[in-house]
Amino acid sequence: MPDAPVESSYPGERLGLPAEGPGSIARLGRRVGALFIDYGAAYLISGFFAWDPLAILAIFAAIQLVFLPTIQGSPGHRIFGLRIMRVDGAWVGLWRPIIRTALLIIVIPAVIWDADQRGLHDKAAGTVLVRA
What we know:
It is a multi-pass membrane protein. This protein is 49% helix and 8% strand. It is mainly alpha-helical.
């Protein structure tokens, strides 16, 4: 008989993360706040280029691709006290931010979550967004 799935009492428990405090799974409010900061910055920067929707998206992607591997999160993440890391706790490297950002831009993978509140974009990249 196959083993029954293990239920966790809080998001991130199956990943070995704490329930709250530093290292715990980033909650929705902080994630949305960080998204608004990053997208707002892209919107303002694109004003120099006539607010082209594709320019906004390209600038948003560039913000993610530059800052995720260098400061462990986008400016919005860092302002809201979040950081991104691999599931095993190591540095995200260079290719994981590319996969994560490509799927984040598509939007749908980012709004489908698992029990650990990780979007499909994080699962595909092998990353997790945690409190700093």
